[in-house]
Amino acid sequence: MRPFLVYTASRLGLFAVTLGVLYLIGLHHALWLIVTSFAVSGIASYVLLSRQRDAVSEQISKGRRG
């Protein structure tokens, strides 16, 4: 369960940081702010959180086997 929680917390943290940075650089419309933050943090998490994602997938495959 721990790798899943670490990955989820990392994704949420990355989304929050992206949201804050985009707001500070001038994106104030709520809908565009959320959509853009979701897209940017998704791409960043694909690159930055690969190790955590691998740990989650390993945990899931171990759970299915045993």
Automatic annotation (TrEMBL):
Keywords: Membrane, Transmembrane, Transmembrane helix. Pfam families: DUF4229. It comes from the Bacteria. InterPro entries: DUF4229. The chain crosses the membrane at residues 5-25, 31-49. This is DUF4229 domain-containing protein. It comes from Sphaerisporangium corydalis.
